[in-house]
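Quick one:
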Amino acid sequence: MKQYGLSTAQVQEAKSRYGDNRLTEHEQESFWDKFKDNLGDPMIKILCVALGINILFVFLGQTEWYESAGIAIAVLLATGISTLSEHRNENAFQKLQAEASHIMCKAYRDGDITELPIDDIVVGDCILLQTGDKIPADGIIIEGNLAVDQSVLNGESKEAAKRAAPDPELRLAAVDFLNEHAVYRGSVVCSGNAVMRVDMVGDASVYGGIAGELQLEVDRDTPLKVKLGNLAHGISKFGYMGGAMIALALLFQRIVIHNSFEASRILAYCSQWMILLNDIVQAVMLAVIIIVMAVPEGLPLMIAIVSALNMGKMLKDNVLVRKVAGIETAGSLNILFSDKTGTITKGILEAVTFVDGAGNEYDSPASLSEDLARLLSLSIHYNTSAVISGSGEKGKAIGGNATERAMLRFMPDLHTGRQIRKIDSILFNSENKYSCAQLAGDQECVVIKGAPEKILARCRYMYDARGQAVELADNRAITGKIDALAARAIRVLAFAVSRGRIAEGKLPEDEWILVGVMGIRDEIRPDAVAAIREVQQAGVQVVMITGDRKDTAVAIAREAGLITDEKDLVLTSGELAELSDADLKERLPGIRVIARALPGDKSRLVRVAQELNLVAGMTGDGVNDAPALKAADVGFAMGSGTEVSKEASEVIIMDDNFSSIVKAILYGRTIFNNIRKFIIFQLTINVSAVLICFICPLLGMDTPLSIIQILWINLVMDTLAAIAFGGEPALRRFMQEKPKKRDEDIVSRQMWTSIGTGGFYTFGASLWFLQSRASHDFFREDKYLLTGYFTFFVFTAIFNAFNARTDKMNLLGKITDNRGFLSVMAIIVATQVVLTQFGGSVLHCYGLSAGEWLLVLILAILIIPVDLCRKFLLRQ
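Output:
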């Protein structure tokens, strides 16, 4: 009996030299750390500055506390909603350790086999591996044979055959999941027994390297944060410059214009320092008011509300958003790196076709003749280690390997009730490439399945379409079919029958009869091709990443529509490694497939794409995908994937379907467009309010709106408008738009024309309302004039909301798809009518007559034809 393993002294030496099998854990970010980080949002920073100034003026008795409270609530709500959403995301590394911490391993120590926690394994340990075990470290098989599932590391569902290395001293070199002697931590033993020698432990293993990547902080702002940062910078500049200019203008009016430009009067006025100081204080206060009014304080809250509203809609479409920033980012994607298995393909092996000896192809058992179907059923059900659990349509294939289960699902057992026994068999192994079973009872024969080149060479006869044995004079028809299937990345197994017997573990020596060949593949999802085409039409480059061989990957990519041109590039992991980052950046636009991919390839591709200022997305479901999912601008984890991949992602695709990624992109673009609509709506009000606050003091007028009226307008602008615009429907035409550049201004030129048109119309109408003799004559008293102005301002905002919700001429297009918009506007209208008629001295609203209402509504509704003229001119 062979002796394996280490002595106690050797274990201590290995531990001191290489360490044990623990994975390094790093300190995690707390809730309050996340909250403080979210306070760093550029728009939140501006709000905090405005809040500080307001609080100062409250203590000086120069303003009311209401506005400070409103800004503080907006900051706390916007920051709190984002933080709470992100806090639910526990750290991916903690989940990684939780999955692995309870595993026990069977290790040889001091000449005996003993169970040890996975963390106690050291380099040089020999581990006994059996069916169902998780491999605890990286190493080499030194005895036995295994079939292992490496999908958690390389994403491929096909089981890999592993056998003992011819040289027991062989050491693990470069990572190669196709190496038939190497096994890696995290893989699962599907069948067989073996002994492995541990060569890499802890952080040095492939699994540990992935865990280490998860600890790296990803310091990259989302596209929306970049755009909002640019907007905040612009607003700050506008507010500060505007405030300073208004303060200077007011002082100029008080000191120079008020004194008729006479030098003596100006000097006399300046000598009265108390009056001059009071004017300076008033000018500074007005500047602060202008700065505060220029800030769209409702924007952060609106983004949080819009995102929350759409998260529910997306969940109904099998898209679960874990991190709010992931929603908008999905709409900005320039490049998407997609797993093949389970995303583009179904993720399970399926028998997709059967070909008889004459080359006739059948896509289902129903199209086979009765006799040929019985022969195929016998070959599948009586030469397998898999079984059907349950009966009828509820029956499920279990046991065996994935290929055997796929064949059982394809072909029902047509021999139920017959007395057929298996009296001898030869199991499949990677050297023989075949298996067979000796049957007795109602069916006396040997059924054989294996590699076509092994089976066809022994077949002199074949069963024709009727199930009759005929001479196989020429096998070119079936070999041609096999070649065609191989070109489509379909694996092929051949079936034959012999009338001889298995003798001493050897195949029958007589001439066999060919039943046919079966094609097996992880089939492309039916809707994946159309979904990929739609994503490409949306301007997003799709790159498939797979652990498959290059020829298999190319066949899948062609069928999925990823490769359509000879210029499209397909690279293997080895070829990718040979490219410098500069070369990769040059070739990246043409890359469509990465074959035989390693975990590090995905992270590198994401990094290089981001260095090109592209917004990069990544899909994945395995532990190997987690670092790239975390590093990407938006990570899409599959619902059936590992917990680690889900925790590293922003978005979870619940049905594992590529078409759901299309929906995520569409929703992302919809949310971005809705944010833009809200910005048009709010900045139009802000621009007009700033202009009014600027001109009124210069004209010797007090601000026409009271503090409480301004609070109501802010409520209209912020929370209610966010709800209204947040429900705008997802329009398929958004998928025809080009992706927005990462640093593109969130306010486009078209938006500025809308903001300017609406803002200057409201300002001009306000001047006429407040200054014209006709307007004053129309109202009974000044208090009714100011009541009418307040109502005009709110109704102008309501009508402009219809302008802002679409860039089309038809303002009511798709309006029934957002009934919330109509409901919110109806609530605002009803509330405003009540405030106008019954507000009294508290709200400075004293009711309007029918004629006064008519003037107010006509002036307010005119903003619609004014903006329609703008849209018409832009189209010309």
